[in-house]
Write a structure and sequence with these properties.
The protein contains 15 helices and 17 strands. The protein is of the alpha+beta class.
Length: 452
């Protein structure tokens, strides 16, 4: 397995100054290389400037400026140029796909926070003093920096990155050959439905509360942002009060981000420990949080009709505050490490399909929280209905994965999936061979439901 470890650095005052200078010089190199590419494109050069050409100039740049560019690792400077090349590759890929391109922009000193060292021992060495109890990392041009290593590092260290977050410094290790730690099987499979009222609802009917970290700190954050907005946005040099206001806003956002990350890690770990297979919806979060398009007024040119942008903005804020994408990514990583399986399924009509009869209709969703089937009269919590449908589809994927379908795979889905008339017609191949194992699962998977 490949795993990343993140540790806090404890640099001295002089080492902090040197780390800041290292970021500044790498930022200057990035902007200079970007300017060279812009000039070549502006003057109509037929041959585009490549990473190889810019990397070949590093030797002359280091010899011309030995006190700044020549002070740092050659490999880390190559990584910075590859970072720019990656940005241009993404730009041309978006142009070719017809999407909004987003030309690479210059980086400000406060927005260039990471320096990468592609190989351990080349410009940066992890655990540079193995004879010492205190773990240290040696960085070229800075020296041996103390590391607060709160857990052991497994595997082989391949790349090292030095990162600045607010006023703190971190070292990020990328290790390969990390052994997995499988957990004992529990024989449980579950489906989860992500939401904003509840963080998620599982197919057993349990609700995970949504902590709403951003909403809980919105008053303090609003006051800090209003105080920051009183200062001019464009100025040659910030005053002491201006810098303090900016640090306060950044500190609040950092606290919210860490709280959310901690909650996601703990919640994902609890799911992985309890269940062998976890199904969830395959969500297009970028599309879900997209602002509605304006509606021009045909009677009054230049004006727009109401399009529900204010209500949609509140929903987008709640979705982004929940952080579904980050949570599902962490869940997949922890499941892989524990030899569990996470199955993303199609999210279409999971909240409109009746788990009892398979009837699909928009009218089934009576309210935001209530599901009432117009065909069979089944009444249930809308979020749990979505989780049951997710579980059903994950069970079919699990059966379909067996070649041929084994008794173990079918028994694993038995008791959690219900074959409705709608989905029975759609089954083909190996999934159809497993259908008879889940025909009698209505009672166990739908406990507590009330048919009318």
């Amino acid at each position: 397995m490949i795993r990343a470890y993140k540790f806090r650095l404890r640099p001295t005052v002089r080492q902090t100054q040197a780390l800041t200078e290292m970021l500044r010089d790498h930022c200057s190199l990035y902007n200079g290389a970007l300017q060279e590419r812009r000039d070549a494109c502006r003057h109509g050069s037929k041959t585009s400037i490549t990473y190889g050409q810019q990397s070949a100039q590093l030797k002359e740049i280091r010899a011309f400026d030995p006190e700044r560019q020549g002070r740092w690792s050659f490999s880390s400077q190559q990584a910075t140029l590859r970072r720019l090349n990656k940005a241009f590759a993404a730009f041309f890929r978006r142009v070719k796909a017809g999407r909004t391109p987003g030309y690479p922009r210059f980086k400000g000193v406060g927005h260039f926070d990471t320096v990468e060292f592609p190989r351990n021992g080349d410009g940066c060495r992890w655990d540079s003093t193995p004879h010492d109890r205190q773990t240290r990392v040696r960085i070229q041009g800075i020296g041996h920096v103390r590391v607060h290593r709160h857990r052991p590092v497994q595997g082989r260290v391949r790349t090292i990155s030095v990162k600045r977050e607010d006023t703190h410094w971190y070292v990020v290790l990328t290790c390969d050959e990390v052994p997995a730690k499988p957990l004992p099987t529990t024989g449980s499979i579950i489906g989860i439905d992500m939401g904003t009222v509840h963080f998620f609802t599982d197919s057993n009917g349990s609700h995970e509360p949504n902590p709403r970290f951003l909403q809980s700190a919105v008053d303090e954050l609003t006051a800090a942002q209003q105080h920051l907005s009183a200062f001019p946005k464009r100025t040659e040099r910030r005053t002491k009060k201006h810098r303090a206001a900016a640090r306060k806003v950044a500190k609040l956002h950092t606290r919210i981000r860490r709280q959310r990350l901690d909650h996601h890690h703990k919640t994902a770990l609890a799911l992985v420990r309890k269940h062998d297979v976890i199904g969830h919806e395959k969500l297009n979060i970028a599309g879900m949080t997209k602002a509605p398009a304006p509606k021009p007024d045909p009677e009054q040119p230049g004006d727009s009709l109401p399009n529900g942008a204010a209500a949609k903005a509140g929903l987008n804020r709640s979705i982004l505050d929940a952080g579904w994408g980050q949570f599902l990514g962490i869940l997949a990583q922890k499941a892989e490490s524990a030899a569990r399986r996470v199955i993303p399924v199609d999210a279409r009509n999971t909240s409109r399909t009746c788990p009892g009869c398979g009837h699909v209709a928009k009218e089934n969703r009576a309210t935001q929280a209530k599901f009432e089937c117009v065909n069979c009269g089944l009444i249930e919590n809308a979020d749990r209905v979505g989780a049951l449908n997710v579980l059903h589809r994950a069970g079919l994927v699990l059966c379909d994965g067996a070649q041929p379908p084994t008794q173990e795979a079918c028994d694993f889905s038995r008791g959690w999936s219900h074959p409705s008339r709608h989905t029975t017609r759609a089954r083909t191949g190996r999934a159809a061979a497993c259908a008879h194992w889940v025909r009698e699962a209505v009672t166990s998977s739908m406990t507590g439901m009330e048919p009318v």
